[in-house]
Amino acid sequence: MADPRPDDERTAPVPPAAPGGADEDFEHIDDSVCRSFQRAVEVVGGKWTASVLLASMRGARRFVEYRARIPGISNQLLSQRLRELQSRGLIDRTVVPTTPVQILYRPTERGAGLMRVLHPLIEWSVENDAGRRTAADDR
Fold first, then answer.
1. Where does the record place the region Disordered (predicted)?
2. Is residue 93 within 8 Å of residue 105, measured between CB atoms?
3. How far apart are CA 59 and CA 52, in angstroms?
4. How far apart are alpha carbons 20 and 10 in whole angstroms?
């Protein structure tokens, strides 16, 4: 279905956020911003991706440290996520020529910036953790 808004409304810049957050006007966000937002959400929305980024921000540098900070992730999936985050410029990978060779990972400035944006989501998740909530909490 075609967007009924005139072209100048679809391409309008993103308006500043309203104070308080609840009354923000999302109707004026243009289509290109929506596509950019969708790509960003897909980056962090992959299974374990945000957890890997969070572990890097919490100081994980070696593979074994990531495993310790992310219970339940498999070696294969952790390797895949680290490669993916590296290819997106969110994590740097450094090979240290020692015996045995050490591979170190650390967040890039871009990755740290993404995690700064996601920090309110971390706070929201703590406040709204469905696994810890009970029916009494909702009354």
1. 1-25
2. yes
3. 11
4. 25
Distance from C-alpha of 129 to C-alpha of 32, rounded to nearest angstrom = 32
List pLDDT tens digits, range 14-73.
555 545 555 567 888 888 888 888 888 888 888 899 999 999 999 999 999 999 999 999
* Residues 69-98 pLDDT 10s: 999 999 999 999 999 999 999 999 999 999
Q: How many CB atoms lie within 10 A of CB 63?
A: 16
Residue 70, helix vs strand vs coil: coil
Residues 6+ apart with CB under 8 A from 50: 44, 118
Helices (runs of H) and strands (runs of E) counted in the chain: 6, 2
- Tokens 């075609």 belong to which residue? 2
Question: Can you list the domains of the chain with their CATH numbers?
Answer: 46-134 (1.10.10.10)
